[in-house]
Amino acid sequence: MKIDVVAITSKDEEVIKTTSKENLELTGGYSANICYTQKDWKEIIHEDYNKTKIRIEGNKINNHHSVFGHGHISLYISGVPKLLAMLLNNEHEYNTSEKSARYTKMMPTKEELMIYEKWISILEQEIKRIYPNEKYLDDKRIHKLAMENARYFISVLTPTKFEYTTSFRQLNYIYDFCLKLLEDKSNNKLIEAIKPSVEDFATELEKTGFITKDIKDYRHRKFSLIVENNDYPEQFGRTYSTNYQASFAEVAQQQRHRTLYYTISYPEVENFYIPPIISENENLKKIWLNDMYYLHDLLKIIPQGTLVNVNETGTYENFILKLQERLCTAAQLETSMQCKKTLEKYIEALKAEKDSRIQPILTELEKMNVGARCLSGYNCTNPCGFKEGIKLTRKI
Fold it and tell me: Rounded to two decimals, what is the model's pTM?
């Protein structure tokens, strides 16, 4: 066996300047030749250019686009609405590094910012009141947790920034998905809210010089996140499909598990997530909801705390992989609690089946149903020591 490195991503500005759409198409042409020749790589890349060009055009026409997936492009996208980032992050061929609303201060509109900062202060006070002697919750962590929960008031269209890496082929498919969304006539509330930003994004993609009309999705696919209705029958076995309501903030964290599939639909009756840290305080709960309805009804903002209908589908192995990340004190509480609920529902459904063939799956899931991941054999490199966090009974 022998391995030759034949391409590598570079952040060198000169390499970026001199890389064109034609360069990436040429890479695809070389890759396509691997399928049809006895030649090795060093011979392929010295093939007559005209022969390679004919192969490139042939692969475009024949929809053999996988050969154009070898070249990757990294985009730094700023001023992009959170919902558009969620659209992109729901497609499975990407890597992303995004500004965190959990750990960095967001800058929404003046009205949102006033409520956001008000709730950071309220939540800090509540965390200290309910956990006065918890060593894990020092002032720095309390402030971050307060920001994490206050961001539920921020619009799902709040600008964020991130680096997004995908293949040359997928970038062109995404451009095609943008055009399809702009043609959508469904009057879906979320689609209509995001259309202006998608149009702007498509224009910016054109400016990169990497978009070609000849590489586009030919399977009638589109952005997969937002649908009209995703109330499917639940099922649990070798694979699973489950429905629940979650905030946009939770969905954004859940969908980052690219081995699982998510869709969201807007509910007929609107409601909002209430953090457990204030859920038993009727006065604070009332103020929380009043602020949510003020933003939603009067300012026509869709807060990230708005609950949407979610369908989650995947295999049990990939569900376990998610549990090994999210059943943890460090995870967003709403996400962690939903994982726990789905795990319990999964176990109960398999027990009711009374089918010996699913016993190995049930055994694996029951190993996870003991609290946080650190209790299931996961090797935690940074133990929290937070008892309620380990028991999955924390309120923040």
Answer: 0.91
